[in-house]
């Protein structure tokens, strides 16, 4: 690859990462991230470069590259990407989800925005620094980790527990921010300074078995489960207008009336749907613990009325909503009549995490962003999903989610690409993000 063509080089790396099809379905034997570790190691292997590989389970590989700083006391920076992607339903796509095709200036494929574009652009930026003889004052780390799309068990969590000296840093950047918000005026670029927690929960709904030919007055667990699912799907958790939310709204060029309405519990829900196009789902998720019943199963045979059914609920928690609080919300959502027939058989415990809103890294990302997107302003926000940043925050690392995207793909459409159909990213975004990492490393570690 020609290092002079930064956009072309990032495009090619991204295409290869997509084609490696590192699909993580949550099972130990999935992922196969070793394919992309092989690719990245081959790409980054230069004389004198320190690269380590880790493979806690066969095929579940991660890569860590270090450029040691000249001053052990200088601040260090870790650029972290992941290489696994979520499964797809290919019939919903216009193009091959693992083809990595370049079509009209856009790279199509699973992982294009979550987050192979960031991982690939980090790799290209790091190689450019290496080839130009970059000698930082503080240490620079680049990692490409496994298993982010499940629980991080074989990736970031394993590394922080088993190879901490290789991955620790004062500051870290991973996915995902920098999407231009659909606000009039100067471009607003969110830096993700926090993320919601998760409490994935499995409920078992109990019934009574019987013959499928006599459904009248039967105690059918599946029918009760459908009622439970509907009630949870319609439930609105208590609104949390936390300090980060207020700082975010204050940083937007919204009309005064809209700003006041979005910071007032009495007017928030009405104003939500009047806000900037495509922001309602994200704004809702940023201010409430959310409940999404996404999987269900029951029955042993078609002619047997099921005596149990299980429901898996994706619960994403706002800081302050602990396990007992979430259980109370579930009970409120479902109601006492059904609750008596429900058993909680599994629940996660991944609390929300956050980093300081202002820091030297914040200042550097803001400065570099203004160079690359003239007139832009950064605003703090929280990522409503989960990232590997949480493992590092828990060990005292200041961790942000960021990137730098063009305005080619509208926000309303872009937000739906994560884990959705027709995932893609444009080449201008690839250029901007690659430049962002290179310039940030130079500025921050000088």
Features:
single chain; 446 residues; alpha+beta; Aminopeptidase; six-stranded mixed beta sheet; 19 strands; globular
Q: What does this 3D model show about the protein?
A:
- With 446 residues, the chain is an alpha+beta fold.
- The chain folds into two domains: 6-194 and 352-445, Aminopeptidase (3-Layer(aba) Sandwich); 215-347, 2-Layer Sandwich (Alpha-Beta Plaits), CATH 3.30.70.
- It is built from 16 helices and 19 strands.
- The protein has helices at residues 6-19, 34-44, 116-131, 156-162, 164-167, 221-234, 243-250, 256-261, 268-272, 280-286, 323-334, 336-339, 360-372, 389-393, 411-414, 427-445; strands at residues 50-54, 62-67, 77-82, 102-103, 106-108, 140-145, 171-174, 188-195, 197-198, 201-206, 210-211, 290-298, 304-305, 308-317, 342-347, 353-354, 377-383, 398-401, 424-426.
- The strands form five sheets. A six-stranded mixed beta sheet has the order 1-2-6-3-7-18. Strands 9, 10, 12, 14 and 15 form a five-stranded antiparallel beta sheet that branches. A three-stranded antiparallel beta sheet has the order 4-5-19.
- A hairpin with a 7-residue loop joins strand 1 and strand 2 (62-67).
- Helix 1 crosses helix 16 (427-445).
- The chain is globular, with a radius of gyration of 23 Å.
- The chain starts with 5 loop residues before the first helix and ends with a helix.
- The mean pLDDT is 95.
How do the helices and strands line up, and which of them pair or pack?
Layout: H1 6-19, H2 34-44, E1 50-54, E2 62-67, E3 77-82, E4 102-103, E5 106-108, H3 116-131, E6 140-145, H4 156-162, H5 164-167, E7 171-174, E8 188-195, E9 197-198, E10 201-206, E11 210-211, H6 221-234, H7 243-250, H8 256-261, H9 268-272, H10 280-286, E12 290-298, E13 304-305, E14 308-317, H11 323-334, H12 336-339, E15 342-347, E16 353-354, H13 360-372, E17 377-383, H14 389-393, E18 398-401, H15 411-414, E19 424-426, H16 427-445
Parallel strand pairs: 3-6, 3-7, 7-18, 8-17
Antiparallel strand pairs: 1-2, 2-6, 4-5, 5-19, 8-16, 9-14, 10-14, 10-15, 11-13, 12-14
Helix pairs in contact: 1-3, 1-16, 3-16, 13-16
